[in-house]
Specification:
This protein is of the alpha+beta class and about 400 residues long. It has 10 helices and 17 strands. The strands form 2 sheets. Strands 1, 3, 4, 5, 6, 7, 8, 9, 10, 11, 14, 15, 16 and 17 form a 14-stranded mixed beta sheet that branches. A hairpin with a 6-residue loop joins strand 10 and strand 11. The longest helix is centred in the first third of the chain and has 19 residues. The radius of gyration is 22 Å and the shape is globular. It starts with a helix and ends in an 18-residue tail after the last strand. About 35% of the residues are buried. The site of tetradecanoyl-COA (MYA) has 35 residues, from strand 5, helix 4 and strand 6.
């Protein structure tokens, strides 16, 4: 009882501190501003109208002297390796600097080349003399529905400045440049997520983790041995069957795309913000790709209908400074639909196949209907919150996580 109220107070203090913070760059941007939070009469939808394309700044923003812009062609092995290394050494770490995301090359090529992608939105900054890549930001096109409006947006991701160039106000320049290049394609809205609080989240989501390899997770410091728990008791607690239990549970294949698209479109209608996937999108984002994305469905044996679907993406983390392990193999819950198989049973089958494939942990946000299975399937709440944002699009009230049907990578 007292524990939760102390946590609640701590959260309120943190929220108040976030609201009072100066955001010299974000205060200049068409995003919900903290000062507007009390003002429910502002109209929902675009904050600024589109600019005539002739009036969009034609040339790139200025960079500090030693640096130049480079468009990163992810098709070339060399550039893909440079991007991979920049992120592997300088991208998101946890607060205690014990882990750093280690997106693979194959994952980055998948994430950055969806249907209709623009190479010009894969933006790098490099040192003019050494040609060393020191910063990166990306956009990919996405059709996203907010309430009843389907909006062409850019999904912004992989913002990264080399550790040696931090706190030099490079990030605002990167953000303005990707915004300019998105505007040139006549797109005026964006969606993005971050672990940091900025003006102004449309939703705040919580990460949950389900141990699959508890011994390794405790060894690397991801988890701690529970009070009054032994290691063998802990291993037993998280034990899973060797195979999925749902009849008709199988890997998704190319010929399933139309049925999965129908199933997913029908399911995502219930959420206030969700992607507007068509068959091309489903083929790209959800067809299994080794070590990138896994997806499974339940096909009824009598009717051959596809009644349920589950998927997760692969995002390993580098373990910083552990003698025994260098990598944490993590699966992240992606899109799941249950219409016949109980969601609990469907997700337990997802845990079973992830364990079988050697994942150490299965992560999930509390978005969509995930709360249904998080506690039941022995997920524990994580320390990371994920803030969801829209750029140049106002929603008058923040969404609860269960009103959100969007998962970014
Ligand atoms: C229409 C189209 C629109 C397209 C654009 C839509 C918007 C897209 C927005 C981007 C979506 C990205 C989605 C993802 O990739 S989220 C993942 C972000 N990447 C990392 O966390 C990797 C490790 N960290 C770094 O590489 C750097 O610390 C970064 C690059 C994050 C900041 O570099 P640095 O630490 O050297 O700081 P600075 O001195 O240059 O700049 C300080 C200013 O930057 C604001 N800041 C700090 N972190 C973030 C952040 N994660 N999103 C947005 N803004 C951020 C900060 O509030 C301050 O502004 P203000 O508070 O004074 O106002
Ligand atoms: C811009 N794209 C947003 C999604 C990127 N994603 C997956 C992400 N964004 C913020 C987070 F808070 C987060 N968390 C997963 C939870 C977790 O696993 N925490 C321990 C841990 C293990 N490895 C790492 C690496 C970095 C940070 C925490 N780490 C917290 N995930």
């Amino acid at each position: 009882e007292s524990e939760t109220s102390i946590d609640a107070i701590a959260q309120k203090v943190q929220d108040a501190m976030s609201l009072s913070k100066r955001h010299k760059f974000w205060e200049t941007q068409p995003v919900g501003q903290f000062r507007d939070l009390g003002n429910p009469s502002l109209p929902e939808g675009p904050i600024e109208p589109p600019t005539p394309l002739s009036e969009v700044k034609q040339e790139p923003y200025n960079l500090p002297g030693p640096y130049e812009w480079i468009t990163c062609d992810m098709d070339t092995e060399e550039m893909c390796s440079e991007v991979y290394s920049l992120l592997a050494n300088n991208y998101v770490e946890d607060d205690e600097n014990m882990f750093r995301f280690n997106y693979s090359k194959g994952f980055l090529q998948w994430a950055l080349r969806p249907p209709g992608y623009y190479r010009s939105w894969h933006i790098g900054v490099r040192v003019k003399t050494s040609k060393k890549l020191v910063a990166f930001i990306t956009g990919v096109p996405a059709r996203i529905r907010a309430k009843d409006a389907v909006v062409n947006m850019a999904e912004i991701n992989f913002l990264c400045v080399h550790k040696k160039l931090r706190s030099k106000r490079l990030a605002p320049v990167m953000i303005k440049e990707v915004t300019r290049r998105v505007h040139l394609e006549n797109i005026w809205q964006a969606a993005y997520t971050a672990g940091v609080v900025l003006p102004t989240p449309i939703s705040t989501c919580q990460y949950w983790h389900r141990s699959l390899n508890p011994k390794k997770l405790i060894d690397v410091g991801f988890s701690r041995l529970g009070a009054r728990m032994t290691m063998s008791r802990t291993i037993k607690l998280y034990k899973l069957p060797d195979s999925p239990i749902t009849p008709g549970f199988r890997k998704m294949e190319l010929h399933d795309v139309p049925a999965v698209t129908r199933l997913l479109r029908g399911y995502l209608k219930q959420f206030i913000v969700a992607p507007d996937f068509d068959e091309n999108d489903v083929e790209h984002w959800l067809l299994p790709k080794e070590d990138v994305v896994d997806s499974f469905l339940v096909e009824s044996s009598e009717t051959h209908d596809v009644t349920d679907f589950c998927s997760f993406y692969t995002l390993p983390s580098t373990v910083i400074g552990n003698q025994n392990y260098s990598t944490l193999k993590a699966a992240y819950s992606y899109y799941n639909v249950s219409t016949k198989t109980p969601l609990l049973q469907l997700m337990n089958d997802a845990l079973i196949v992830a364990k079988k494939k050697g994942y150490d942990v299965f992560n999930a946000l509390d978005v969509m209907e995930n709360e249904v299975f998080l506690k039941e399937l022995k997920f524990g709440p994580g320390d990371g919150q994920l803030q969801y944002y829209l750029y140049n699009y106002r929603l008058n009230q923040a969404l609860g996580p269960s009103e959100l049907g969007l998962v970014l990578l």
